[in-house]
Design brief:
The chain is of the alpha+beta class. The chain folds into four domains: 2-101, eubacterium ventriosum atcc fold, CATH 2.60.480.10; 105-187, no CATH class; 191-252, Type Iii Antifreeze Protein Isoform Hplc 12; 262-314, SH3 type barrels, CATH 2.30.30. The chain contains six helices and 22 strands. The chain has helices spanning 2-11, 17-20, 41-44, 52-56, 74-84, 108-122; strands spanning 24-28, 31-34, 38-40, 45-48, 59-62, 70-73, 89-93, 96-101, 103-106, 130-137, 142-145, 153-155, 164-172, 179-196, 211-217, 235-236, 251-252, 262-269, 272-280, 289-294, 300-307, 310-314. Strand 18 (262-269) and strand 19 form a beta hairpin. Helix 1 (2-11) crosses helix 5 (74-84). The chain starts with a helix and ends with a strand. 23% of the residues are buried.
Length: 315
């Protein structure tokens, strides 16, 4: 049956112009570039005649990946036409057509825009402050299949913190046919954060009046406190200069008992509780064991912090 269809198509080539009048004509190109998932007759030939709209949508094959493409003979194309169109067709033009996937060249500006978009979508800092992207470095050129022109993904390392030097891989396509390039830039974050209003010495418990908000480039700092609420009531572990931001590792919850504080010593033995006064010789947090000096005897004992100003000693 297929052979009969092929013969039907080629017989029309021998018809006189008068006999062929009104017939559909397929003028095969020598070379064609396609960008869709499939090759259609309209992609590889110029179509003439009343049925050219019908012929244009005839599928020929799946688009080959890569720039080398595939060469299709006019006989092969005629056979594909015959599978979908039963009327005679006049084949003209080239005896074969080389079909290649269509590529487009992206400019440096295109790549920089894709990089910036990727950073802004992935950055954890966009809700904290203003993300500033500078010094974007792009390759001299990047060719991608046209069908992926608007489907290029920016991929970042799982460990990327999006501060300082930040690189991304721009990828177009899937699997072995995917193409990619590297783009990098400098990312800064400018945000309003709490800073010390005055110099704060070690051990200072931070109050509301000790702080003010200031707009800073936080890119070079380690983890900062973003809100005054995180800082008020905390104790400074190391000295802090006026105008300096509060780094989380430099503040801590104040202990329930500080060194030198007067405390109550509670000695427990078989249900009996004996209370005495003492002085803490070390800072102590809840359930932490610290040394305490008995105020009356001067004796040093070790007890467990059970509440503010209370130490429990077991006998």
């Amino acid at each position: 049956m297929k052979l009969l269809v092929l013969l039907s198509v080629f017989v029309t080539l021998t018809l006189s112009p008068a006999a062929a009048m009104g017939e559909s004509r397929v003028v095969l190109r020598e070379k064609a570039f396609v960008s869709g998932e499939h090759i259609y007759l309209k992609d590889i030939a110029v179509l003439k005649g009343a049925d050219r709209e019908t012929l244009s949508g005839i599928p020929i094959m799946k688009t080959p990946a890569g720039s080398l493409g595939v060469t299709l003979s006019s006989a092969f194309v005629a056979g594909k036409i015959g599978e979908h169109y039963r009327k005679p067709v006049i084949m003209e033009g080239s005896s074969s057509v080389q079909v290649c996937e269509k590529f487009v060249d992206l400019s440096g500006r295109d790549l920089a825009d894709l990089y910036r978009k990727g950073v802004m979508e992935s950055s954890p800092w966009k809700k904290v402050g203003e993300v500033v992207i500078e010094d974007v470095k792009v390759p001299a050129g990047f060719r991608v299949p046209e069908k992926y022109r608007y489907d290029i993904q920016a991929k970042f390392s799982p460990r990327e913190d999006f501060l300082g030097f930040t690189s991304a891989t721009l990828t177009a396509g899937l699997g072995a046919s995917a193409v990619s390039c590297r783009v990098s830039g400098k990312v800064r974050v400018v945000a309003s954060v709490p800073v010390a209003r005055t110099n704060l010495t070690r051990g200072t418990v931070i109050g509301e009046t000790d702080l003010e908000m200031k707009r800073l480039d936080i890119s070079t700092y380690p983890a900062l406190a973003w809100d005054k609420k995180e800082c008020v009531g905390m104790r400074v572990k190391g000295s802090l200069r006026a105008g300096s931001p509060l780094i989380r590792s430099n503040i801590e919850q104040p202990p329930l008992i500080s060194r030198g504080d007067p405390v109550f010593i509670e000695a427990r033995c078989e249900g009996l509780v004996i209370r005495d006064r003492g002085v803490a010789l070390k800072d102590g947090f809840l359930e932490e064991q610290i040394p305490v000096k008995n105020a009356a005897s001067g004796r040093k004992v070790f007890g467990t912090v059970i509440a503010a100003s209370r130490i429990e000693v077991m006998f």
